[in-house]
Amino acid sequence: MPLLHKFFLYFLPLLIAQATPLKTNPFNPFPSDIGCENLQYPYEILAPVPYLKECLSTINGLVVFPGDPNYYNSIKVANCRNSYFPVVVIYVTTISDIQKSIHCANTLNITPTARSGGHSFEEYGNGGKNGVMVIDVQEFNQININFETKTAVIGTGNRLGEIYHKLNKVGYLISAGECINVGLGGHATGGGFGWTGRKYGLTSDNIVSAEMVTANGTFISPINLTHHSDLFFAIRGAGNAGYGIITSLTLKIYPVQPIVTTIKISYLPEQVELAFIIFAKVAKNLNENLSGNMNLQSKSNNTYTFSFNAIYLGIEEEARSAVKELIELSKPAYIKFEETTWLRIVDSQPSFVRQPFKITSYTIPPSGFSQEAIRVLVNFIDNLECESIALFDLYASDVISRISINSSAFIHRNIFGVMELEQQLKDYSKDDQIKCVKKHLQFRQEFQAKYTSYFSYQDYIDRDLSDWLTRYYGPHVPRLIEIKKKYDPNNLFNSKQSIPTKLP
Ligand SMILES: Cc1cc2nc3c(=O)[nH]c(=O)nc-3n(C[C@H](O)[C@H](O)[C@H](O)COP(=O)(O)OP(=O)(O)OC[C@H]3O[C@@H](n4cnc5c(N)ncnc54)[C@H](O)[C@@H]3O)c2cc1C
Ligand SMILES: *[C@@H]1O[C@H](CO)[C@@H](O)[C@H](O)[C@H]1NC(C)=O
Ligand SMILES: *[C@@H]1O[C@H](CO)[C@@H](O)[C@H](O)[C@H]1NC(C)=O
Ligand SMILES: *[C@@H]1O[C@H](CO)[C@@H](O)[C@H](O)[C@H]1NC(C)=O
Ligand SMILES: *[C@@H]1O[C@H](CO)[C@@H](O)[C@H](O)[C@H]1NC(C)=O
Ligand SMILES: *[C@@H]1O[C@H](CO)[C@@H](O)[C@H](O)[C@H]1NC(C)=O
After folding, report:
1. Taking the CB of residue 299, how many other CB atoms lie within 10 A of it?
2. Which atom of ligand 6 is least distant from the CA of 214?
3. Of residues 407, 368, 366, 359, the one with CA closest to residue 387
4. Which Pfam families match (predicted)?
5. Residues lining ligand 2, CB < 6 A?
6. Count of domains in the chain?
7. Is residue 387 part of a domain?
8. Is the distance from the beta carbon of residue 259 to the nearest atom of ligand 3 less than 6 Å?
9. Any idea what the CATH number is for the domain that residue 85 is in?
10. Is there an atom of ligand 4 within 6 Å of 301 CB?
11. Which domain holds residue 126?
12. What is the pLDDT of residues 437-473, one digit of tens each?
């Protein structure tokens, strides 16, 4: 999750508790931005593609080309650090729209790319390169609940906030991330960790079935453990990496607890090292009803620098006992518990504001970081010119670890957690942004080599990551390539970080 959200969660809770989420301009889910340059597409690159308009003329949904009044709104995605300019954005409304689009992509030699919520860290919702065909699935927004099987068929165009709201009305939730604007399609197929992750697993762990349009326009349904089981393996962890356009996911749903408790624990700068070591020590014994993340910020203004924000799925008394050992051993400077409801937690998340940022990710082994690693990290965060934050999604979860690494494409299982190192760049000039990102990437290379495990989390995608195939998919790379060859032999769905049809 990151950027502002986690930070604000505990500071502005009740103020915005009434706010209802979303349903903004269909073209632009990011009504405001900070620090983004005006978009200006490169005419020489984007001369109209001959026959594209004609080819798409029978599409039922909206079709937006460069030069159309809504073109720039239709390509606004979460990150504006880079901008990529598609040759067309298609708001598909039916399977047939997707099939027609893919037919045109094939015949006119254009790369199609799926877009759900536009929250890819590297703007892969717009292809991550110029000249693609964006197939936006936001009209695929059904949510059909089956109370008998405790599952819901959910269109990939839904945003997490809408799903949480609709399910909460009937007392259920899905296990997914914390940012209400994130789209299900990109999120659930690459992992998905949030407030119930330690108890119910990642979103991808909760997929029981899916539907997809593949590279030759075939609509495949269902994709499950017994039908197209190879694809079922691939889409749970690598489903956002170029297998096709996923239109719906059937996810397990879980009952909402009537009362949940927020926990906020903070430490002073001088306590960081000890606190981190205590976390690693107690993590595997932490009650699974607790999920949260640690947040390491620069100590500017001498405020708290290290905090733990968590949700306990139950009453305060249980929450207190769940963190008793942690508190006794680490002696936080500040502790706060607050009973609330699941819906209030969802509603206290502010909408994400489009802005420039760079994020890298790291997986941390069960033993945590060494003291030296923490020092190196704190030193980096404190001394960089641009504001940086390290956020740690605390996995240390039996539920996630118990699932065999071979049962899906998602490999990050027996770990302490995932760290994302985040630079918010909105307050810096383009030159300073470039300098900061360069230092960040240099740091990443050294830090990852010395102090973390080899792997990175694919939902926190990073286009500058070396050996990314192995870092994201580990031993599954050959198998994922075989599956790609079967369903997309001509590599129609290709981006800088899609699964290739042969080993690089
Ligand atoms: C503010 C913010 C908060 C976040 N919080 C969390 C969090 O709490 N936990 C967490 O685990 N992650 C979190 N993330 C990361 C998030 O899970 C990924 O960025 C995710 O891929 C975004 O999905 P999307 O559909 O919104 O993005 P998009 O940009 O639309 O898509 C992302 C990728 O998925 C592909 N894709 C999208 N839809 C489909 C589809 N229907 N079929 C096939 N491929 C598809 C796209 O082509 C693209 O490559 C957060 C990201 C942001 C920006
Ligand atoms: C997969 O879907 C088919 C068709 O609906 C169904 O018969 C089968 O039981 C499903 N498999 C599993 C493991 O759910
Ligand atoms: C988690 O919460 C549920 C519901 O309150 C409770 O039944 C269960 O015992 C809790 N789990 C643990 C490990 O305490
Ligand atoms: C530090 O405090 C000053 C004055 O209160 C404020 O303007 C500034 O934004 C703060 N900086 C940070 C990083 O919080
Ligand atoms: C996963 O599969 C690989 C290759 O078949 C095998 O070597 C490995 O032992 C399996 N791992 C587990 C945990 O089952
Ligand atoms: C289309 O691709 C699917 C696999 O995605 C394959 O089963 C089918 O045979 C292909 N159809 C044609 C006409 O090539």
Report:
1. 17
2. 5
3. 359
4. BBE, FAD_binding_4
5. 222, 224-227
6. 2
7. no
8. no
9. 3.30.465.10
10. yes
11. 43-136
12. 999 999 999 999 999 999 999 999 999 999 999 999 9
